[in-house]
Fold:
Amino acid sequence: MAAMEGSLFLWGEISTERSVESGEYPWSATPEELRKVFDILRNNSVFRAAIWAPTTRKGPVPSSGLIADVTTTPIRVSPWGVWVFGLTYGEAITILQMIDGRRTLTDGIIPGEDMVWWAGVLRQAGSMVARQKYLPDVVPDDDVYMGMWSPAFIGEEAEWISTAAAKMPAVGRALTRMEIKAAPSTPAVATLWHVISAMVDYIVRNPPTITGRRRAKFDSIHDAWLYSLRSKHDAISGKPALKSHLAEQVREWHRPIMITTTSPFRLSFRIEEPEDDSDIWHIRYLVRLKDDPSMLVPADIIWNDTEQTKLRGHLFFALGQAAEICPDISKNLSLGGAGGHTTDTEGAYRFLVDEAEALRQAGYDVIVPSWWTGRGNRRRLTAKAHVRSTSASSGILNMNSIMQFDWEVALGDDTISMEELEAMAELKSSLVRTRGMWIVVSAEDIRAAIELLKKGHTRGSLRDAVQMEMGMGAIPSELEWGGISSADDLSDIMETIKDHTTLEDAIQPAGFVGDLRPYQQRGYSWLSFLRRWGLGGCLADDMGLGKTVQMLVLLQADCESGYKKPALLLCPTSVINNWKREAARFVPDLRVMIHHGSGRTRGEEMAKSVAGCDVVVTSYGLLLRDVESMQKIQWGGVILDEAQNIKNSETKQAHAVRSIQSEYRFALTGTPVENSLTDMWSIMEFLNPGFLGSRESFRKRFLLPIQSDPDGEVIGKLRRATGPFILRRLKTDRTIISDLPDKIEIKEYCSMTKEQATLYASVLREAELILAETNGIKRRGIILATLSKLKQVCNHPAHFLRDNSAILGRSGKMERLREMLEEVAESGDKTLIFTQFVEMGHMLKQYIQEALGREVLFLHGGTTRRQRDIVVERFGDDDSVQVLVVSLKAGGTGLNLTAANHVFHFDRWWNPAVEDQATDRAFRIGQTRNVQVRKMICAGTFEEKIDQMIEQKKAMAESVVGTGEAWLTEMSNDELHDILALSQEVVA
Amino acid sequence: MWWGYTRRTPRKVKGGIRLQSTRGESAQSWWGKSWNQTLYKYIEEGRLGRGRSYARRGMVRFIEIKQGVARGVVQGSMRSPYICTIKVRQLNREAWGRVADELVKKPGVIAKMMAGQMPKELEDIFGSVGLSLFPDHMESDCDCYDWGNPCKHAAAVYLILAQELDRDPMLIMRLRGMDQKNLLGMMGVDPVWDTAHNTGESVLAPSVSDPEPIPLDAGTFWGRAGSSILPVTPAEVPTVSAVLPRKLGVFPFWRGEETFIDALDAVYKDASEKGMEYFLGDDDGSSPATK
Structure:
């Protein structure tokens, strides 16, 4: 999207290069292609315009490697013809709202960096309108004068416009009409100003308050102006002389703002607390030059320097305005003081509470002591509770036990007595110094505190106490919650909930085969603690840290303790097989039932089959279909794998999941749920219903304030409240790194789609028919060819069919890869993907690019040496490139690709040495992080069988199993069939 | 004595300069009110009432201010309007010199005036050198038939000047014969309002910098991935609306039918909610809350 002549225009790039006339941009999207993406572009004017882009000897450099090669060095800026759509501001705004915050619109449609930037400009326009930082204005345009609402960049955002302009991608101002022969040179600031003014004007004006046919006659030019501001007709009607006089009057009226914006400095006020026991606070006036913001000069130096007439002029104005806001400054000015003034504690309190904010809003800097700004540190009276069990809560404690809350009032850690409160109430000042610290006590707080102490005690459940302790409970006072002061026998639980590092290790069940790494042991102990108390938790460890095994150990422990009720485990179809295989490996005694496929049971029958097992694994999709049968079963727990599947709380899926009753609930996810607050609410609502309040109250209490002020107090409050229920360890955490081996190898079992399974079976059938009648070298040839075909089917049907057909949704392996790459992309890590097949490499590159909206690099045998060097260098240095696909016979021996710390083997060589060599591109000297290596295997196919045989071979000294595939050709037809045939449970 | 005078109702004027206050004083500030005191001292009650109602109904069609003089065009009952001149007694050079000597000792006074306030001390300064800030005498000249002086037309002009004084206290200096620039010069201060800025461009626009060529570097040109996300100022809807235009004061010589600030207030209130929607964007929180 680019601005030209005060309007915005949309154009697009497409990765297919067209044979075009000279002077045309080779990748310009056609009007039809653009209309397909934005169906609002029905009746817009479409024409060809010139984009002035960096150009090499060969032609323009496109925006991204997604389009074409970007590695050449431009030598000049030249115009290239592109198709552009003229947009009204209404349309431009609609489009920008669509793309706001998204990397892709749909697969393959990626907003340019300039659009991301314009979307930010729109949000800023919205913010300025919300805060009413704009003024009615008159903008002359030749003979026409327009009534406009113009943004006023003063106060907090005085510097915003230059900061934003500096970030503007120049393409946003590089568009001209075809006939223009000179490159555009409108400064970014000017372009930005025109567009953000138009956006502000659009938002304020629409829908217009005055409608109907255009009015042309007015009693005065001022009436005409007001009309132009409130109707859709922005041209002011009236005689030219009157309009130009109006423009002068508007300028005169705006004058104070203009003085502020052209000031060469900002005036700052710094309040300093008394150094001794006196009651004298200093408020100093300081000047911070815009040219050198690090310098703070006492204002009286300029005030008294009669040589500095210009600076003095601005200082006079700035101090004069400040005097209006703050009476003490006014008084001081009258006395001739311009360096600062002093005040008593009461004055300091007034300054901190009211005047500082007013000054800040007027555009002054105010520097306050750290104890005042330090968010949450501002010490106040708080309500604390002493919690103890009552006679009604005899027996074993659980979350529903009834507790007594004895209320007290505290200041920090000190309890405040009724007498002290009454003494405080007598004090005039609200700012009190205790033990060398300044604290704020408002009259309302004192009143609320006295009330609370009179109330004495209340009752509630242990769950209430937990909720309060997290800052989410309803407390019987307007005071801020200060925490639980003591909780007798409960203090251990409370401490552990808040701080899981104090957890005692849970005992590993005997039936667990394997070792837990130290952090996994902690994770398992955490899960089992929450499980014991019936609290829901979300294990959100980074991908590759072993969430599955931690969960499985908990299930096994439950089972060994004699717990009979089964757990329901929900996951995406693509990982059902993975769960089954991980369970078989780590907890072989656990009875796992896969509820999947057309043969699955329902109703009564299902209840019967479930009764015989410990865990039922099914997909989110099937839960929806069989939800009624599921609801009838008495579940011990419900566990969600890839819990981001319920991130939208209003989907049927999320409703269905919440409708299943159980005694405990867990969620597993590798994506940082805390990044999106609504996602987090949805998952928390599943885990601990009601804890964060209703969706609407959550929106009011957290979402809106946090969106308005992302670094404010509210986000911290939310983190404290949810922290106990979310355990997230990053593989970069120092404590985790030391627990991790340098290289983790993981087998990723994928399910096949129905199409893949059908193709697989038919390839095999065909091959077996021929094999029955051939032998010798020919037979070998056929076996090797068959293996290759089956591999292709496992990779992707389109890979086998070679028909350039659609990619999406047809390969279980590909979908699984995509899910994992999305997680990796979130963390900013880089990935290598190895495949034996060049065609597959091309498909992977295209598919991943469209899915992630980022350029994917590709190295294969046809890559020239020079290109190869560029690819390697870009993969190492360019942060926008995260994925490199490699299809080289020798796995690219000699390449150094240590920027990657994830390696995927999309298909297999069946030769550990070759695969390790490939892996070592990333895992070699220079690699500072640990590397995760994943070998992708289609479950139930020959890929899995051969993998098992190789694993067994590693254990045996000598074996028939060789490396590579040649040994397979020596097998009998029956032996071959055993290896190649599909087992029943593979289809997704 | 018969002067051929018949009482007629004044003609209706549309689009004249209107007093923005619909009751009581024409000015809000103490200095605007003090300015009016001189008028009250000289005018007869009935004429004052009629003059005030003239000013409120927008009968003053035009006002021109020069050093020491304000000239108004006021519609009366006759077809052609009256020209009405108000002469303010100017201080001579010597008197201004005395004032300036005192002002230099109290720069705070000028600072406040530049920011749109008139400190009471200004009156004291004038008094300390034996002068008075506001003219103690009023001289007007109108071509109407009323022999009473000041007439209602002069009153209307006078009251509107008070309103303008509210917004721009420095106007008193000009009416008293002192150019603002000269006065500031005596104080060792440049006028911060640079008249050279009158280029026709909105004063809210950033000053235009030099031409900025399209960069040759492809990364800078297209924008590097992830570097184009803009910081946005956090938004909230203010509790008091239209603070900014209120701070700028009454629009100079407002002629509109509606009261200016009321008309704006309604727009600002409506728009805040709309702005919030654009700021928040997708309400399902697509914007990450953590950094």
